[in-house]
Amino acid sequence: MEALASFKKELSSPKKIFITTHVKPDADALGSSLGLANYLIKKGHEVTVVTPSDYPSFLYWMEGNDSVLDFTKQEDHELAKKALKNAEMIFCLDFSVLGRVDELGELIRQSEAYIVNIDHHQDPEDFADFRYWSTEAAATCELVYELIVELGDKNLIDKATAECLYAGIMTDTGGFRHPNTTKNVHLVVAELLELGANASQIANWIYDSNSVNRLKFIGFAISRRLIVREDIHTAYFAISKKDLKKYQSRTGDTEGLVNYALSLDGIKLAALFSEREDGIKISFRSSPEVAVNKFAASYFNGGGHKNAAGGKSESSLKETLEKFESLVEKNQEELFHHEALSAD
Ligand code: 5GP
Ligand code: MN
Q: Could you give all domains of the chain from N- to C-terminal order, each with its CATH number?
């Protein structure tokens, strides 16, 4: 309560505000950042949104997208650094450990600005002056909506802001299908629709904007790069650098692919390994009873939510796959049968 009062006090006069989110932002990361930014601008603050990397073009429709600075872009880098240096408040959205924002993390740690963390991931690092955090929330966008309401400013959520927030809730619940699709999710979403969000338009922008290359890539991956190990309830995709190049893969093109592996009957653990410039990026998904975030944190330097997590590996693709298979084999009991060890 005290923290909330100090946060409200900070916001009570116009501030220079820096908003950032995790590397390779998804709809929840960017939607919560831009939704919050649009609101804070209406309140009279000066706001800069900086992403630690680029993000998929199917998010470019979001209001405020044109002003986002990408820390990895030469032309944006200095502007972003300056905004961070001048910031009086820093908002960290949709991540709970500073390692998730690459080099920005250390700069934020050293900053003397008032730091706010709005997030729904497990095990938050203690870096914020004010934390608006709940693992019960399906999406950071849900928390941003609730925070604005708590500040008594629901009337400042316009159609464009409602659409940013709706997008994050829609995608983080897997289109209102994952176990995190609570009654509260539907209540919040109902309010966002009331505020003007157009559900079918947003679904169209996000899910129906494939390039021909992307669709062909998905077809290729499913027919040629899917490995199914029914004996250990596991299926995974292994995508090489060469594959990505062949299909002219762009940021966002592999998003959602892992769900095809999980959609197989009897499969409880799915993964996507993609070979990137800086190592192997891994996406994990699991059925409701399997805690894949613990597995990602223990063995692949990652984390996330119980049923949707990520990680990385610096070994070769082949070695990483061998390690993965043998670890699933070794941890079968804990992964698939040991309820007590499941994370929330
Ligand atoms: P995705 O597979 O969509 O990239 O990520 C799924 C979930 O895992 C997201 O909530 C994301 O924040 C989290 N995640 C992805 N990669 C990492 C990682 O390298 N470290 C941690 N701690 N979380 C990750
Ligand atoms: Mn999220």
A: 2-207 (3.90.1640.10), 212-341 (3.10.310.30)
